[in-house]
Design brief:
The complex is a heterodimer. Chain A is an alpha+beta fold. Helices cover 27% and strands 16% of the residues of chain A. Chain B has 16 helices and no strands. In chain B, α3 runs antiparallel to α8, α3 crosses α9 and α9 runs antiparallel to α14.
Chain lengths: 293, 414
């Protein structure tokens, strides 16, 4: 190349440059249009979801239905948990795993039940998630299950560099698993340990897959992305309760529409002693804790 | 001669320069290449298996990689310590070596970007950050700010050194109207990259150990220690292996500036420790985990005190004029500074920030072999880049590598 005449040298360079520019332009044109699922038009969303279903069929061998139910007008979901009733049985943890297709190996739990000492009150420094007695509840202990607090002032969505996580109109904080780059900034920002990372390909046996899914909810996730509780978006947007509410044997879990004055959740907030975790951080959770008795 | 012709002469000349060297040079290059290959194999394993091959978990979700990233941002920012006296105060002995500070900044930024790349769960989706095909959550996400300032800082430094060196190669003085504004711009940028990186942690109310406004000033103070420590090694090596003349005063001056920076660093650490221990709130946990350990969880304690002692030693060595003028104590001081800041800003910043985790769990993190190998590979890449750039830059500065017939470049084009 250095031996060739200057003009030929320049010409070939120009050709290479033109070719490269053309290729780049073609790449940009074909990959244009939002790949992120945030605010995509309905028809494009439907085609993306059809693609997802096809891929799941090929890769997992399961006929998974990926729903696209949008937020309903006049609905803002909220949760309330009765600390005086929770017995620490962790049935909610495993019902959640089954409903939401969390990895079985390694285990991912969206709900963490913390055992606390009655003497110390709600104190994370003296809490433990790995209690293992013969029977619950243990003497002198009470239990605080923690999952995503669905903050109004969510630190996790603010820090995301790619806009892969956001709050839906019904107040549910969701993640686009196809857009998340796995930087885990949201995990550092979350004060409730509610965000979980797929450190490897999730171990999800085909036979155990819940085929009723939602595109920003419980559809199976790839390796290297973050996931979290979505208030069972695939259920609650269809008028059902979250799996943890249904399974709780103590009736400690309440769920409903904050904007409906006649709802159970409104009754609890208006009549019970209600608290939110880490109130000083001003995250404004829509997950309330209360003492009914 | 056309620009393309000139530039190809420059490129081919550079290639010839970096492919010629003595046995020591080739041993060094082969050593670095071996480390890079070793790291690449580890990275391949990480890509195949996922980040589960590291010791990071949900509790400690950032660790060794991000610690190295933070440390290296400091190294890159510290190029400014040379630029300020050289251009603002016109202090001649330092001006000759500014180019090397900028080359160091370029190499450090490349390492920073590589450490971020290996830390993310989906490196294949890196382009999601790049508009117009991707989306950058600016100005909400401080990480978006960091992506911007790091890349701008990289471009500015790269442009300035390439321009200065290329002009010297062709025997012309550099374009003052281009270089001076860019160099002046790079001063706030250097402060900026480190401030933004500090804000990355500082802005997280969920992590009380980071959520202290002393973090950004302390980052800058420690950066002005570690960056020059590396440069001082380098300048002595250059002086030894080439006929490049670096006056003793320049080296002593840098060492003196490092003493002030280290004093500030220690002072800010002390101020933070006082606040935590005297007020004794629940936020003291994280500081205690670093300096004392919590119960039987004491993995980090030896690192914490090693860093404190190294920082004190380097301050003592650099503040005493006789000690910083003695080559032995000078180099000991550099080594102590480098190691001390590396510990406190890597593991000492990230791990106690995340331990105990936000729900009080203590997960004892210790890097795996994969993490150490990937990190070694990235450092080797940075050093290789730096070595190759020096191999071209030094002969140009000395007037040994230039266009046939070009006038000997002026050593000081002002």
């Amino acid at each position: 190349m250095n031996q060739g005449p200057e003009q030929a040298d320049g010409l070939s360079r120009r050709q290479v440059m033109a070719g490269a520019a053309g290729a780049a332009a073609a790449m940009i044109l074909t990959s244009c249009g939002p790949k992120s699922l945030h605010e995509v038009p309905k028809d494009r969303l439907l085609s993306l979801v059809a693609e997802m279903e096809k891929t799941y069929k090929e890769k997992l061998g399961a006929d998974i239905k990926v729903g696209t139910e949008p937020a309903l007008p006049g609905v803002e979901f909220a949760y309330a948990l009765d600390i005086s009733r929770c017995v620490g049985c962790r049935r909610c943890v495993y019902a959640c795993v089954e409903e939401n297709n969390q990895s079985r190996d390694p285990q991912i739990h969206w709900i963490k039940v913390l055992s606390m000492e009655k003497e110390k009150g709600v104190d994370f420094a003296h809490a433990g998630a790995y209690y293992d007695p013969k029977e619950v509840p243990e003497d002198g202990h009470f239990y605080v299950p923690v999952a995503c607090q669905q903050c109004r002032n969510a630190p996790c969505t603010k820090v995301c560099p790619t806009g892969a996580t956001w709050t839906e109109r019904d107040g549910i904080v969701v993640i686009d698993y196809d857009w998340c780059i796995g930087c885990r900034y949201c995990m550092a920002a979350c004060p409730y340990g509610a965000r979980h990372f797929n450190w490897t390909t999730p171990g999800l046996p085909t036979a155990e897959i819940n085929k009723n899914t939602h595109y920003i909810g419980n559809r199976p996730r790839p390796s290297g992305v973050v996931e979290k509780c979505t208030f069972c978006i695939q259920r609650t947007r269809n008028g059902r309760y979250p799996a943890c509410v249904e399974v709780c044997p103590a009736g400690a879990r309440k769920f409903g529409n904050l904007l409906d004055p006649g709802s159970e959740i409104r009754y609890i907030i208006e009549h019970k002693r209600v608290l939110v975790l880490k109130e000083d951080l001003n995250t404004l959770p829509k997950f309330f804790y209360f003492y009914a008795t | 001669m056309s620009f393309i012709h000139l530039f190809s002469r420059f490129t081919w000349g550079s290639v010839r320069l970096v492919t010629r060297g003595n046995r020591l040079y080739w041993t060094w290059i082969v050593f670095l290449l071996a480390l890079i290959v070793w790291g690449l194999f580890a990275f391949a394993e990480q890509v195949r298996g996922g980040l589960v091959v590291t010791a990071m978990r949900d509790q400690v979700s950032w660790a060794f990689y991000i610690g190295n990233f933070t440390f290296l941002v400091g190294v890159a920012a510290a190029a400014v310590i040379l630029v300020i006296p050289a251009y603002v105060y016109d202090w001649k002995p330092i001006r000759h070596i500014v180019v090397y500070g900028e080359l160091l900044a370029v190499s450090a930024i490349v390492m920073c970007l590589l450490f971020v790349l290996v830390d993310i769960g989906r490196p294949d989706r890196f382009w999601h950050l790049l508009p117009p095909v991707g989306y950058l959550n600016f100005p909400d996400s401080i990480l978006a700010w960091d992506v911007l300032v790091l890349n701008i800082y990289f471009l500015v430094n790269f442009l300035v050194v390439t321009h200065i060196l290329y002009r010297a190669f062709t025997g012309r003085a550099y374009e003052k109207r281009l270089v001076i504004p860019l160099v002046l711009f790079s001063i706030p940028m250097a402060v900026g990259i480190h401030t933004v990186t500090a804000f990355l942690y500082n802005g997280l109310a969920a992590r009380p150990y980071w959520n202290a406004s002393i973090l950004a000033p302390q980052f800058l103070a420690s950066a002005f220690c570690s960056g020059p420590a590396i440069l001082l090694f380098l300048l002595q090596l250059l002086r030894h292996f080439t006929r490049f003349e670096i006056p003793d005063e320049a080296i002593w001056k840098i060492a003196e500036l490092m003493a002030y920076a280290m004093f500030l660093n220690l002072f800010l650490h002390g101020a933070e420790a006082f606040k935590e221990y005297y007020s004794g709130t629940e936020h003291l946990l994280y500081t205690r985990y670093w300096y004392q350990g919590l119960g039987e969880h004491r993995t980090l304690v030896p690192f914490a005190w090693t860093a404190v002692i190294l920082n004190l030693v380097s301050f003592a060595l650099f503040i005493v004029p006789a000690a910083r003028r003695n080559p032995v104590t000078l180099n000991l001081g550099c080594l102590a500074t480098y190691a001390g800041v590396y510990i406190e800003k890597g593991m000492g910043l990230i791990i106690p920030g995340l331990t105990p985790d936000s729900l009080g769990e203590i997960y004892q993190y210790y890097p795996t072999m994969i993490e150490l190998r990937v990190a070694a590979g990235i450092f080797a890449t940075g050093f290789l880049l730096f070595t190759l750039m020096l191999k071209v830059a030094v002969p140009i500065s000395l007037g040994e590598f230039r266009l046939n017939g070009a006038p000997v470049p002026l050593s000081d084009p002002h």
